[in-house]
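Below is a filled-in request sheet from our internal design queue. Each sheet records the structural input a requester submitted and the sequence that came back. We keep these sheets so that new team members can see what a complete request looks like end to end.

REQUESTER: design group, bay 2
PRIORITY: normal
MODE: inverse folding
CHAIN LENGTH: 144
BACKBONE (tokenized):
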């Protein structure tokens, strides 16, 4: 019982007390924060910080905003670089697949042909087949 009474008495003693002077010059005491305490604290902080050579709260906010902007730009650049790297890898994989199909078609033994300027089908001879095979194999070596 005595301990409960002591706890009950210690709570009011631990409460914070505020003292301020209003615009009319009257001094007030209260356990509540003064109505314009934040504004006055910021006004008092800026000259004190400037005198001490420290940045004010608005300077810190500006620095924080710039830091966040740089951080977002860096993350954006990293994601763009990753997307470009993936796109390049996809193009390379497609080129590899196309080159392997070309080698397979050339080695398949089927007669190959191309179209000339008049739109006529012209069959590829053995020399041209060997050249195409060599180019396709080189493409496989470069892309796979």
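RETURNED SEQUENCE:
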């Amino acid at each position: 019982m005595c301990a409960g009474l002591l706890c009950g008495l210690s709570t009011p003693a631990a409460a914070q007390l505020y003292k301020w002077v209003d615009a009319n010059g009257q001094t007030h005491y209260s356990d509540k924060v003064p109505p314009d305490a934040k504004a006055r604290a910021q006004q008092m902080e800026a000259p004190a910080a400037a005198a001490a050579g420290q940045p004010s709260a608005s300077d810190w906010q500006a620095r924080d905003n710039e830091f966040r902007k740089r951080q977002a730009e860096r993350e954006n650049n990293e994601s763009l670089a990753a997307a470009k790297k993936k796109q390049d890898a996809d193009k390379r994989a497609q080129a590899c697949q196309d080159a392997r199909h070309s080698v397979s078609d050339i080695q398949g033994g089927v007669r190959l042909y191309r179209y000339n300027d008049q739109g006529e089908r012209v069959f590829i001879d053995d020399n041209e087949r060997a050249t195409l095979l060599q180019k396709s194999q080189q493409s496989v070596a470069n892309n796979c």
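SHEET NOTES:
- The chain has a mean pLDDT of 80.
- The longest helix spans residues 57-107.
FILED BY: M.R.
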